[in-house]
Design goal:
Layout (H helix, E strand, L loop, with lengths): L1 E5 L8 H14 L4 E5 L5 H6 L10 H5 L5 H4 L1 E2 L5 E4 L6 H8 L7 H6 L8 E5 L6 H7 L4 E6 L9 H14 L6 E10 L3 H14 L8 E2 L2 H8 L4 H4 L4 H14 L2 H4 L16
Parallel strand pairs: 1-5, 1-6, 2-4, 2-5, 6-7, 7-8
Antiparallel strand pairs: 3-4
Helix pairs in contact: 1-12
This protein binds adenosine-5'-triphosphate and magnesium ion (MG).
Pfam families: AAA_31
InterPro entries: AAA_dom, DNA_Partitioning_ATPase, P-loop_NTPase
Keywords: Plasmid
Length: 271
């Protein structure tokens, strides 16, 4: 089992879109995928359960210790993809857990055993730094960051890198790493090129080769509760997400990073 979380404090940068389409691409290759929805907005849940309200228990009951993860995981509209769904009351978990024992370890403890049935666990996250995100960081193997080109595209990455380092130092997940950054919603203009150059300067080999272009097909697919791979298989969005998935699955990409598990050390105070 491998696990990856898509994290950015910026809202609307394509985290949920990436989780959905990478899940579909992985399942298309015959991999068994589990999506963890840790965002109270529950966007991934909404698309994958075709707009149906998730029945209880959800990830909230799992985190507060009222249900086992295997009792909350359900199949989705995508063959080969299961989900541990979220509902809007997940926001309350930040408050409920704050005074509880093992508050930063709840997801890690809950997933022990449940994850074994899957080749890949993909975690969607909220655009807020919270106890929920800390739980995610203390569980996954790697963090991938979508970045929309623009003036403030890379701001906030410094905080995320500090959080990754703090989890390795103070919590259980000693092998957690920033696995990469990739550009989303790119358009053909100079800002995108500037941001890409800046990213490569800061993050070197951590920058994915694949860029996800802005494509209306991606949005249309969501509103039909589909992945772009089934909705518009010949679109630029579909081929970009297939390529991104290949890169995520490529074990070789790790070796290209000079053997440094935390990524380029010179980038650590970069943003
Ligand atoms: N490459 C793209 N081209 C066009 N639209 C896109 C693309 N990627 C995502 N979108 C659309 O942009 C909006 C935001 O994307 P998404 O919900 O995936 O971002 P997010 O980072 O998960 O947001 P949040 O932080 O609120 O959870 C959605 O309406 C989505 O359909
Ligand atoms: Mg989202």
């Amino acid at each position: 089992m491998k696990s990856v979380a898509f994290i950015s404090e910026k809202g609307g940068v394509g985290k949920s879109t990436t989780v959905l389409n990478v899940a579909a691409a992985m399942a298309g290759k015959g991999l068994k995928v589990l999506v963890l929805d840790t965002d109270p907005q529950a966007n991934a849940t909404y698309v994958l359960l075709r707009g149906e309200k998730p029945r209880r228990p959800t990830i909230h009951e799992v985190l507060v210790g009222q249900a086992a993860a295997i009792h909350a995981i359900v199949p989705t509209a995508l063959p080969g993809v299961d989900i541990l769904p979220a509902a809007t009351d997940l926001a309350d978990a930040n408050v409920t857990l704050a005074g509880e024992m093992g508050r930063e370890r709840r997801l890690r403890v809950a997933m022990a055993g449940a994850e074994a049935a899957y080749d890949y666990v993909l975690v969607d996250t909220a655009p807020t730094r919270s106890l929920l995100t800390t739980n995610v960081l203390n569980f996954v193997e790697e963090v991938l960051v979508p970045i929309v080109p623009g003036l403030f595209g890379v701001l906030g990455l410094g905080q995320l890198q500090a959080d990754v380092a703090a989890v390795r130092r103070f919590l259980d997940n000693k092998a957690l790493r920033l696995g990469g950054v990739f550009l989303t919603m790119t358009e053909r203009h100079n800002v995108a090129q500037d941001v890409e150059e800046q990213l490569r300067r800061l993050f070197g080999d951590l920058v994915f080769r694949t860029k996800i272009p802005r494509s209306v097909k991606l949005e249309e697919a969501h509103s039909r509760h589909e992945s772009v791979l089934s909705y518009a298989p010949k679109s630029v969005g579909a081929s970009a997400y297939l390529a991104l998935t290949e890169e995520i699955l490529d074990d070789g990409r790790e070796a290209k990073r000079n053997g440094d598990p935390g990524g380029n050390p010179s980038a650590h105070d970069a943003a």
